[in-house]
Design brief:
Layout: E1 2-3, E2 11-13, E3 20-23, E4 31-34, E5 47-50, E6 53-57, H1 64-70, E7 84-87, H2 93-101, E8 108-112, H3 115-126, E9 131-135, E10 151-156, H4 163-174, E11 175-186, H5 187-190, H6 196-209, E12 212-219, E13 227-234
Parallel strand pairs: 1-5, 7-8, 7-10, 8-9, 10-11
Antiparallel strand pairs: 2-3, 3-4, 4-6, 5-6, 11-13, 12-13
Length: 235
């Protein structure tokens, strides 16, 4: 249901993040994206009728991308015509917001391994023509290389011990030169023994040793325990 009680002045475009809006004065809501499918919601998010069109709540408690944006992430290169490969699409919460940003010719390949979340993801994709679902294991990009073409942006949210390795493998297969990579590292998925800061340091070194020039790192542990995001350019 549309929340019509809110005034336009509470919504502000976020600089250097096309399609994302800062929300002020609405309890529990910090960010929103412009809804690509007006009137439709996918996970109980709130809708707002504003001077910018219909906006959709972008929950930082559900999304590591939203958490990173709240902590200062800006991605001007992720725009209407960007092609995106999303590793670990799960039920489609964050992928649906990425889809909101691709208002031009951009396409999002949403990769998920588990059949159960894939069923829910298909309901999201069915309403969004710029999303293509891919059932596959991110550790083996050769198995879906015939379904995914070169992309401008690689997003990885796969909580397993080999998350940085599979991220680099997919970058080697699909990320264009000077493309942007985003990976959310979950320290406890990599080691139960080492301190999170040790894990993050090792993973950053691994990424940089394998072709990723990391230009931003964001601690999102406030919202997602023992998580840190690394954003870099691929060479």
């Amino acid at each position: 249901m549309m929340d019509e009680e809110y005034y336009y002045s509470k919504f502000f475009p976020l600089g250097k993040m096309p399609g994302v809006y800062r929300v002020k004065g609405v309890q529990g809501v910090e960010l929103a994206t412009k809804n690509l499918t007006p009137g439709l919601t996918f996970y109980g998010e709130r809708l707002f009728d504003t001077e910018f069109g219909e906006l959709r709540e972008f929950s930082h408690n559900r999304s590591k991308l939203a958490s990173s944006i709240l902590n200062g992430l800006r991605l001007p290169d992720l725009g209407p015509d960007s092609d995106v490969l999303y590793l670990g699409a799960s039920f489609g919460t964050t992928p649906s917001h990425v889809s909101d940003l691709l208002t031009g010719t951009g396409i999002e390949f949403a990769l998920e391994f588990a059949p159960r979340p894939m069923r829910d993801l298909l309901h999201v994709v069915d309403k969004r023509k710029n999303m293509i679902p891919v059932l596959g294991d991110a550790r083996f990009p050769d198995m879906y290389s015939d379904l995914v073409h070169a992309v401008d942006f690689l997003y990885c949210d796969v909580a397993q011990a080999s998350q940085s390795e599979l991220f680099i493998k997919n970058a080697e297969y699909f990320l264009k030169p000077k493309g942007i990579g985003f990976i959310a590292i979950k320290a406890k998925s990599i080691s139960q023994v080492k301190k999170p800061w040790e894990v993050f340091s090792e993973q950053k070194n691994f990424l940089e040793d394998h072709g990723m020039d990391v230009f931003q790192e964001i601690d999102i542990g406030k919202y997602h325990r023992d998580h840190k995001v690394f954003v870099g350019k691929w060479y």
